[in-house]
Write the structure tokens for this entry.
Amino acid sequence: MVSGDILEISAPRLNEVGRMAKVEEVPGLAENLVLLSKEQLSLAELLVSSGQQEIFAAWDASGIRDAEKVEFFNQISTLDRNYPGGIERYLQNARGLLQAAARAENPLDGWTPSVPQDGFQPEVGSEAFMEYEDLGAREVKGCCFVIPAGGLGERLGFSGVKFALPAELVTGCCVLEVYCAYLRGFQSFAERTSGQPCRLPLVIMASGDTESGIRALLESGNYFGLEKEQVTILVQEKVAALASSDALLSMEGPYKVGTKPHGHGDVHFLLHSSGLVRRWHEEGRKWILFFQDTNTLYLTTFLCSLGVSAKHGLHANVVTMPRKAKEAAGSIARLTHWDGRSIVANVEYNQLEPLLKATGHHEGDVNGPDGFSPYPGNTNELLFSLSEYVSELEENGGQMPEFINPKYTDESRTKFKSPTRLECMMQDFLKVINASKAKVGFTRYPLTFGYFPCKNDIITAARLASQGTPPHGAASAEAAVYDANCTMLRLLGVSVADAEERHWKGGPQLMGPAVVLWPDFAPSMLELRKRLTLPSAVCIASGSTLEIRGDVYLRELELNGALRIVAGPGVTLHIPKLKVQNRSQSFEALTDGEQNGEAPEELRIRGYRCVTYELERIEATEAGVYTLTEDKKLIPKLE
Ligand code: UTP
């Protein structure tokens, strides 16, 4: 038995009443049997034997809406094909988990959590951190990148795909563009060090809800500088929505089953069934990184995490951050079973408190003396060694343990507020790997470099902020980008003005100078240190904005305003001494009218806009090596 069995709750055998019913006796279905092909008839039998006869009660007599009945069976056939073991197995699994949920059973019964000790905590900016980055930079050529992006983003109130959201407003560049820029940055880095061409594969898992939006975004951005062949889109299918604890299918009409996303855990199955990971492994690639669709900070510390994995031979490395007790983020825990098994895995936030209480920690999920839970928070950035990942996939087929999370109308736990479905999570790969063989560890970073997804609408963000919980909204995601960049600069000795509290509709937000450092300028702290040749002579005043792109070396800078420095392809730009003072760019709250609909959605979800009063642009586009003179002229660099 592998450790992954922990969440499997044995499903009861098929509903006995359903088994006995015959299709000829089912009202609604009996009158329509003549329409069915052999394959459709066996699907009908399967539905009936799975206790679904009720759904046919609303069917019209034969001759009325017959085409829709055929469509219904086409949909059932698709649902059947897309779930391992078919729809019968799906309903069986769902019924088992729904009954356990109705009894409020603890899915982690038998397991005791403890704070894991298997972590690495490189202090950002320290020599040890940069040594890890150096090692990571040498390993990155063998890395593959995977982003599940099939989620609906229902909680955000943004109608486009989340990848299309601006990562921040100073550049307005979207999240996917930032991710692709990192891949390009890592590629050129690898090419420079190895002298070999390097193309890093990117896989995006989309769903029916996001595929066309993601494809359109990639096309409109010309794949953001990646080659089209580097990017693979895998599409996850949805699963049937369920209306009751007996796993009755939830119908959107008499002939259409409601469907819902099955969760990001599908990514492992798709990587396996598409044959992609096997191919990568055969090509000699060594690492596979999973991360999510709206937290661009993942890649800021990635080379260090990769160095940690490489140095310590980790088969799996989970990137973690300090987590506030009760924050809606999973926690990493060591789980020990009474039978002796022990694993390091993610415990979802809604499971941690009951699990702690059930195992003698009466206070539940609470903060320690440092103001954070002792259990590290899961950022859902997971780095696997490819060869171990491939062998695990061969064994488990990429099947993740499933769970169900029905929202009940009342304490009787019988009726749902809305249809539910089985789900699975990407991070549960940690529960199915062979714990006795795999070396699982985690890397901790401070909150500044943690998890700042853009997932909540502005009202929810305000409510969470008022409760002292991370708001996970658009404003906090944006501020986090500036803050991480300012922190890196400060750690290197740059003088950067402190952040100030701003008040947006989504709650209070600390915002410092708005600094954006592109990965072709510095994909790591180690590179940033090389770029700033005299950090103590760089000073960024409050209210400033700064963007730097490309091969730029900066010595002295006095910035009190807005500045954009761009070195285009083939350009190296040296800036010995620069002083910029102007009216800058400023973040200004939306008016009520703008907030209520006049402003674009991407502004309404954050509650402010970025207004440019004055912006100094220093841009070198023609290939060559230049120096910027003190009176801001570009001249060819003299050796
Ligand atoms: P989230 O937890 O942010 O959920 O997903 P969501 O589905 O995007 O948003 P809501 O719950 O509807 O508001 C975490 C990551 O998993 C992906 C998301 O795209 C995001 O990168 N995801 C989620 C999938 O790829 N498939 C799914 O079925 C669900």
